[in-house]
Amino acid sequence: MDLERHKLTYGNHKKNHFNGIDMEYSLTPSYLLKENMVLACGNILFADDGFSVHVIEKLQEILTEEEKENIALVDAGAGAPQQVLTLIDSESKTKKIIVVDIIDYGLEPGEIKILTMEDLPKPDHTKVDSHDWPLSTTMYRVVRDSPREIDFKVVGCQKKYVSEPDVVLELSEEVQNAVDVAVDIVLSELRGKPIN
C-alpha cells in the first residue's frame, strides 16, 4: 500500500502529521457515520441472551452491499450498548436506531414485541452502578441531547431461558424460531415499511 496516498477517512476530518505522512482522522466511530444502526445487545454465551447476535448475523447475510453503506450492524455485547450510544454527538449521522434484545414482559417465550421510547421504563437515576444501568436511561439521554431527531425502536423477544453463569450456546427452540421473525421486522423497518 502506498502510505503517501493512504488517508484515514472518518467523519469530520482533522489533519494529523504522522511519520512524515499527512493523515485525516476523526473521533467519530464509523458506525455513527451511517443513518441507520441496528444494535445487538446480549451475550451469545448465555442461551437466549444471544438472540440479538443471531439476528445481526442473519441481517449481515441478507442485506445488500448497497444497503450496508447506510446501515451499521453493531454487536455491542452485554455491556457495551451504553458505550456505543453515548458516543453519538453533533458529527454523528445516526437518524434511526433499532435495538434488538431479549425482554421479560411476561409474554409467551419467543413472542416479539416492538417498543418505542414511550414504552420504555422511565430512567431510574437512583441506580448508579453501570452494570445495573438500564438501556432506557441511555436512550432517553441520547434522544434528548441529540442535535437531530432520532427514530428509536426496540425489537424485543420474550426470553425463555438465560443460562448465566453457565455457558449454553444454543437458543431455546421458541427464541430460535423468533430469529427470522425479528429479522423480517428489522428489514421492514430499514426498508421503509415499518410493522407496528
UniProtKB/TrEMBL annotation:
The keyword Ribonucleoprotein does not apply. This is Coenzyme F420-reducing hydrogenase subunit delta. It comes from Methanococcus maripaludis KA1. Its EC number is 1.12.98.1. PANTHER family: HYDROGENASE 1 MATURATION PROTEASE (PTHR30302), HYDROGENASE 2 MATURATION PROTEASE (PTHR30302:SF1). NCBIfam families: frhD, hydrog_prot. InterPro entries: Pept_A31_F420-red_hyd_d, Pept_HybD-like_dom_sf, Peptidase_A31. One of its GO terms (molecular function) is coenzyme F420 hydrogenase activity. Belongs to the peptidase A31 family. It is an enzyme of class 1 (oxidoreductase). Pfam families: HycI. Keywords: Aspartyl protease, Hydrolase, Oxidoreductase, Protease. GO terms for biological process: protein processing.
